[in-house]
Amino acid sequence: MKTRRLGALATSAAAAALVAAGCGGGEGAGERSDPFEAVEQNERASSERARAEASPRWEPVATLSGSGDATKGIRIDPDAVQWRVRWRCTKGGFEVSQTPAPDEGNPLGAGRCPDAGEAEAIDTGELQLAVRTEGRWRAVVEQQVTDPIAEPPLAKMEAEGAEVVARGSFYPIERRGRGKAVLHELPSGRLALRLEGFATSNNIDLFVWLSKARRPRTTQQVLRSDHTEVALLKSTIGDQNYLLPENVTAKSIRSIVIWCEPIRIAYTAASLRR
């Protein structure tokens, strides 16, 4: 069972353009159209504030749980695009409502347990969620934001025995890119990647790749080299950390590539120096 509020699906025009465009086509791709071109033009013509907005991403707000009826307070950032509550329940019926009541009415979601569901809303600020059910339940609240991410370094990056083993600067391939890629070896010997002052063209469905290409300049050069996919890119702007797979060694990583899988183009890359 899944419940959605239709009004909550409305986002900014820029976010809608990102979804419609996917990752966009490659520049100079000949007969292939480039649905990202209009977004790039809009970026260049936008204000400084608009250029500082990252692609929409979900971040946690609160994890709530209980047994039976309960009312819990949450705070949604005033600049959030929207928010959602995802729940699991165990017994009887389930209903979750919002106070103040949204324009589109309550409840946000309802169903029969045991089950799981999701509801979305666009109201911001201090809110109360009222849960009505008989058994145990758990709910996760997340908000969608477009501000740059600002993760501090992992504690183990600065612990005794940790060291920086490689670093490099991002440069454009199919899309713009800037900032630093820093490869850390943690005291345990495991590797972690940190992106600092990072920025690339706004879009969704971007991935972080560890590539064996020494300094790729084209998508074709990236595809001709072996790679390891780490994770979805957390944000198109800002400082962020990635714990790398345990079997990855520093010698096997020659560059960091930001990759768009649906269209299969390389956005930007950083060649690592030891």
Walk me through what this model shows.
- With 274 residues, the protein is mostly beta strands.
- The protein has two domains: 57-145, Jelly Rolls (Sandwich), CATH 2.60.120; 149-271, Immunoglobulin-like, CATH 2.60.40.
- It has four helices and 17 strands.
- The protein has a nine-stranded mixed beta sheet.
- Strand 11 (177-185) and strand 12 (191-200) form a beta hairpin.
- The longest helix has 9 residues, at 13-21.
- The radius of gyration is 22 Å and the shape is elongated.
- Residues 1-17, 25-36 and 45-50 have low confidence and may be disordered.
How do the strands line up in the largest sheet? 9-15-12-11-10-17-16-13-14
Structural class: mainly beta
The gyration radius over C-alpha positions equals: 22 Å
What is the second-level CATH architecture of the largest domain?
A: Sandwich
Coarse shape: elongated
Helical content stands at: under 10%
Name the helix and strand elements from N-terminus to C-terminus, one letter apiece.
Answer: HHHEEEEEEEEEEEEEHEEEE
CATH class category name of the largest domain:
Mainly Beta
Question: What portion of the residues fall into strands of 2 or more residues?
Answer: over 45%
The CATH topology of the largest domain is given as Immunoglobulin-like
Largest beta-sheet characterization: 9 strands, mixed
List low-confidence stretches: 1-17, 25-36, 45-50
